Amino acid sequence: MTPNSLNFSGGPGALPQAVLAQTREAIAALPETGLSVLGMSHRSDWFYSILHEAESNLRHLLGISDDYAITFLQGGSSLQFAMIPMNFAAGAGAPPEYVSSGYWSARAAAEAARVRTTRIAWDGRPGGYRKLPDLYTLDVARPSAYLHYVSNETVEGLQFPACEEAFAVPLVADMSSDFLSKPIRPGVFSMIYAHAQKNLGPAGVTVAIIDRSLLERIPNGLPSILDFRTHISHGSNYNTPPVFAIYVLTLITRWLRFDIGSLTAMQDINERKARRLYGALDALGDCVTVHADRRWRSQMNVAFTFGDARLDDAFLVSAREQGMVGLEGHRSIGGLRASLYNAVTPQAVGTLADALTAFSVHCI
Fold it and tell me: Which of 17, 49, 226, 242 has its CA 20 to 30 A from that of 252?
């Protein structure tokens, strides 16, 4: 991989060039402290200011009120798959319900079932995970602890539209792969969580946004580190947090707030990128197949195939020769996948679209 490679990986994903430059400088020495960010104490005034800024920027970008707590956790979404039912499903009138719409939501439902009794509200596996349900038409029991779904299925390239209205039961969303890619209405949700390595920076930190009223459900007796109240009451500094990952996350939020300008502006950029790539793929006709049904296509992850593993592999080789990497499909479905996270530039997407068009002569 060359320094100028174009990263289309599903994760860890691309980072903005401005953030990479600041990170490179901070690894040598932070301008504010003269010490490397890798050696900064999590108990330092500098780090407490970073935690405060990260939260403040998220509240500004997303319009999050003080009715919601924000905390920065470790363990990725995989830990949240267990923590959420442990904290919020005990003693509820009915089991939590899960939308199983792809690889990661199926993983979330399976892990939750190890902790509490659960119910699958909708399962896309029989149809090969190519479409999504309309959330508001699901038959969800009113006393259910919550309804959990993954807003963007990274593997299959499926994305739910924005939720605009309150749901009948508490709504919990894993937004790991489209968080901060567009505006949302936080008040619709009881909890939103998102791990990094997509739009938030390097792996190591997970953002959790929780309606404070939901905290009243948490049973006593949980291990302290698995109790959301512990992390909230300690200001995300209960045990040694991922200082470096939170620092880069803060740089990302600065970039979105002050360079891009808003999540509406970011959404406009992402929509243009997705139109460019899907337009190129659709123009190839039967030469290529996009995994997701057209209505549910993701703006973040585009899963597709030439229908022949040899052609898919040949395109990967051709793409690498042109400086494009990370286009391998997920092991569960194979094929190819282009991830168009926030930091992937329109110019990079144009290069990929042109490469696909040029490669299509091999389909004849």
Answer: 226
